[in-house]
Structures are given as C-alpha cells and as structure tokens.
User: Fold TIGR04141 family sporadically distributed protein from Enterocloster alcoholdehydrogenati.
Amino acid sequence: MPGRKREKPLYDYNIYRILPEKAESFKSFLEDRRFEEIPLKPECIQNPSGYTFTLMFCDKDNRKGSPWVNLLSTCTEWDLTQELKIYGAALICYREDSCFVVSYGNAHFYVSDYCDFNFGVAVAERLIDLDQVRAQQNISHGSKLSKMHMDYLGGTVLSYRSGEIPTYIRGTSLDPELWGTTINCGTSAQFKWEEKPTEIGEKLNLLNEIIKADSSISLPRLTFLDAEEDAEKIESLYHQLAVAIEQYDGAAHDGNLINVPSFYMMGTRLIQNDSVRFKLSCNHKSLEFDGELSITAINEFVREKEFALQEVIQKINISIEYANDAWTNRKPITEYLEFITEDNFCLRNGKWCSFNIAYLDRIFQEAKRVAFINHSQDEFALSKDDVIQFARENGFYDETNSRQPYETFYNQNISQLIGAICLHPQTVPVDPEGNGRYRYEVCDFCKDQALYFVKIGKPNDFAYAIDQAMLTLEKCEAGMGSLILPGDLAVSPTEFRMVLIFDGRANMVEKWEDVFSINFLIHLTELKRRLSSTDISLTIDFVYW
Assistant:
C-alpha cells in the first residue's frame, strides 16, 4: 500500500511594513546593535518580483546570563547561570516602492521605530473574515487599558465599542489557499506559508497591491505620529493647542474640543476637590493652585510667569500633592490634556495621533443608543436669571463677587421645585478606610431612587459629570447595588440622570453630532456600556442658558 503523500511544511512569517526610504537607516540601526549582513545563496532566490533580500543576523554572546538569572541564583541551591546566546534576524525585502521586514527572534524589538503601525489592521480589513475572529485586543482612546477577547471553540464577529480601536486580530483567512488558514494581525501580520524566505517575492508583491487598494471595510484606527517623520506636523499641532488654550474662555464656541480629565495617579482615579493642590512648573518657575486643574489655571500660570505659551507648551509640568507637603513626580501637562482638532488629530496620553472616520462613526453609532431630552418649558429649564433671583431671595447671592457658584444655586433651586434631596456640595471619602483627604460628590441631588448629576458649561466640560457618575457607579457596584449618601442616607439607584446645561448655546441639540465634543461622547458611551450590565438606566437632560 503506497504511503501517504507528505504535505509541504509551513513556515512562520512575522512581517512588518516600513517606508522604503527608511530601509537603509533600519539596516544601520541593526548594525549598531551587532547585527551583521549574511550573504545569501543566489540560487535560492526565486521569483523575487523586483525585491532584493538582505539578511541581517545577530548572535550575541551572553556568558554572564541575564540579570534576573543572577538574582534568582542567589536565592536557590542551584547555580542557574549558564552560557546563553541571544539570536535574532531580520530579512529586509526591499524595492523602490515597497519594503517589508520579516523578523526572527528578538529582531521585532528593533523594528518598532521604523514600521507602519497600521499595516496589521489594514491586512485584517482586507484578508480576514471578520465574522470568524478567533481573538482580538482593543485599546480605548480615554485610557491606557487594553482588552483581550478570546474564542477557543470557533470564530465570532469582530466587536469593539465606542472609543475602542482594535489593535490585534486573529482570524480565518478569506483565501486559505493563498494566505494560509489563519492570519494574526497587530502591528505586524503573521502568516504560515509554504515558500522559503527567499521565495516570498510574489507574495509580497501581491500583499503590497492589496494594501494600497481601497478596502470595503474600514476599522477604527488611531495612528501615533512619528516624532521624526511627522516632526513638522507635531509642531503645528502644539501650536494649535497653545492657541486654543490662550483663546479658551467663557465665551468660547461650542466646538472647542479641549478637555482636562480627572487625574489618574498610582492606579487610582481621584476626583478633585477644594482641598487638593497641584503645582505647575516651567523653566525653574512654579505656581500652586487649589481645586481642579483647568485651562484657566494654565493661562494664569503662563501670564504670571510671563511665558509665551506657544514657546513653552511642551515644557510645562504638573505635580500633585497627595499628602501634606508630599508631591508626585513632575509630568508634562500634555499628558493630562485631551485635545482634538477638526481635521482628525488628537492628543492622547501625551502623544499626537490621527484617527479615521470609522472611529468617529462608531462613537456616534453608540451615542445614538443614549436617550436625551431637551428642556425648554418645564421646571428643569431654569434660566440663569431664575437661579440668580432664587439665590438673592434666599440671601446667599454675593453682589460683589463676579464668580458665583451657579451650579449650587441651580441644584438648590431645582431640588425645591421637584421635591428632591440636595446633596451638592457635600462630599464623601473616596476611600472610607483612608485619611479622608480625597473626596467626591456622589451626586448633586436625588429623588426616590434616581441620582442627578449637574454640570454647567460647554460640551467638553460635561465629561466631568460623566467621570463623577462613573466613580459613583463603581462605589455602587462595590456596595452590591446600594450607596450611602451624605447624612447616612441609603439608596439603591435605578436611574442616572445627567443634567447638562449649555452655557451660551442658542440652538438645541437635535442629534449627537450636534454636540461637537468627541471626548464627551467617548465618556458618555463608556458610562452607558457600564450601566447596561446593571439595572440602572441612563437619561441625558439638556438645558440651555
């Protein structure tokens, strides 16, 4: 009986795409790290399709072992150190209009500064059946957290929520005969092919043509700008940011997309209050502030220290007091600023990025699931004059102060009108077991089992109210669905209502695209997602001043 015919072996290919003009500098970069060019056998190069192949190989001696090996050896009965070698290789596949790098061993550590970060997602859009995804990883615009989803039994539909960007996708190939059964896509694209390394020219040629062609599917993507390649654009964006900060005031138009999120320090979110201090510093000059970080505080610092903001925007640092006279290390102020331009660039975690229309479309798609109410005639539609009159009648309006606590006036006034319990501005400790220095407002007022969160300002300011509601939700989840309000009042919330008061807006919101703040919508849809796993509903109440 004849033996079974052996199938051809499959070889792993981890492929990155880099700009052709970066090929020589990448090669030099590897040479500086003890990689050397290894001659290839000309007879092994088949169907190159115009590509030249350069193999860079590294065999580093490491006779002392790694530092952690030495450390563990001091704790054990055995000597764990041994003669080790670190192997790495990069096959640079170059032609005038295209360049790919196949990495082996540790070479993938070195290609990251040269590669096209969108390459993997572009491959996924064109070559993977997105209804048969085996694994995916998403990151969120507003945080540094990532989420991994696995399906061990079979494929599932690719999923991502508002503000999330798929950064890794493993799925079934649309053409298994050509590309292999399964493709892994992240920064690189990973295939299993029958061809040997110097025989992949035709595959690369076809891959290059496919990547350049339009795709019928567009996944949300967020691309970090390259510090060198995009230096001129980054400088222009910092200029736009500085101008936006300088022009930010109470009369700013609704499309101003600056937002200063709550501080994130040592893994714990802290809601600012009047007892919190922070310090802005630049060029050996500093100024301390109480309360929330704001654009106004940045402008005050720049004005008092006589800086030109456009010259120092990248040099301003912030530190936060977390105990009496104990401050966090300084960090660039740009790490605490969210900024989005009208031409789809944004500042995220201190780095400039560009994003595509699919990213925005997904946010609006998720936002449309959130109900909103425009108030113009009912008790919620208190005007600014109404609450000022209320404050005067009750004796707490200060005629000599140009900066009045209008939110306090509104909360007290509306609470009387609808029979609610006003809690603003009372706070409770974030951590009851701590020293009580960091506190937050559970909500502004409550009625029955509904909690109300109020914010007056522009759309970018409304994210503060969302952050407040998110922290309240976290405490509610920790309390198994119940909360203790100031005054030891127990409540089991069934509804969150965001009362968002537009200051100076003439036209009512007809659709979510009219809000003009992507940052706010990202926060909002994340709150909606979190509430969907509870019995708490969400309603947005828009009021216009």
Summary: Residues 61 and 85 are 5 Å apart (CA to CA). The longest strand covers residues 128-140.
